Amino acid sequence: MFPGICFAIFFVLNALIWGEKSSGAVPFGTMFALVFLWFGISVPLVFVGSYIGFRKPAIEDPVKTNKIPRQIPEQPWYMNPIFSILIGGILPFGAIFIELFFILTSIWLHQFYYLFGFLLLVFLILIVTCAEITIVLYYFQLNIIFGFKKLK
Predict the structure, then answer these.
(1) Of 65, 68, 84, 69, residue with least CA distance to 145
(2) Number of domains in the chain
(3) Is 24 helix (H, G, I), strand (E, B) or coil?
(4) Same domain assignment for residues 51 and 83
(5) Per-residue pLDDT for the chain (152 aa), expressed as one digit of tens each?
(6) Taking phi first (over 0 means left), then psi (-120 to 50 degrees means alpha), and beta for anything else, what does residue 121 get?
(7) What pTM was computed for the model?
(8) What stretches pass through the bilayer (predicted)?
(9) Are residues 47 and 82 in the same domain?
(10) Does residue 70 lie in a domain region?
(11) Is the separation of the CB atoms in 102 and 113 below 8 Å?
């Protein structure tokens, strides 16, 4: 469904750009190729995949699960989804903000950006920060759900 929505939005926006006779519109040949790829490849593959999926037997769980659902205790304030989303986004953004500022400033002032080694270092810091935030937030969630004992 998502590719269809994206394709429809792209097609409508391109039609509006064509209506304004802008040079930014996708050429007719390219648009025809995209429509052909969509209806010639993507749509048939969706139907083939659904046909194969319906013919397969139902997936069985590899282990027995408890029929009685486990009660999840009330979550503390720091496990609120809004707070988790903000923390999960602010810390990685803070790790890359200065370098992003330098890159955008050099683009806006029509200058060359030549500190690619430093950019690689900042990218590695971003990856480590994202990994650490993911581990910490998942630990907090598992700690609430399963009630891990606190170390004394």
Answers:
(1) 69
(2) 2
(3) coil
(4) no
(5) 777 888 889 889 999 998 988 888 888 899 899 889 888 998 899 999 999 999 999 888 888 888 888 777 777 888 888 988 998 899 999 888 988 888 888 888 888 878 888 889 989 999 999 999 999 998 888 887 776 655 44
(6) alpha
(7) 0.53
(8) 29-54, 82-109, 115-140
(9) no
(10) no
(11) yes
Question: What is the distance of C-alpha 70 from the center of its chain?
Answer: 30
Instruction: Yes or no: say if 38 and 7 are a contact pair by the CB < 8 Å rule.
Output: yes
Q: Is 66 within the bounds of a domain?
A: no
Instruction: Using alpha carbons, list the distances in angstroms from residue 79 to 27, 33, 130, 136, 151.
Output: 49, 48, 18, 11, 20
- As a whole number of angstroms, the distance between CA 136 and CA 58 comes to 35
Read off the amino acid at residue 23.
Answer: S
Q: Which domain holds residue 119?
A: 77-146
- Has residue 71 been placed in a domain? no
Asked if residue 87 and residue 44 are part of one domain, the reply reads no
Q: 122: helix, coil or strand?
A: helix
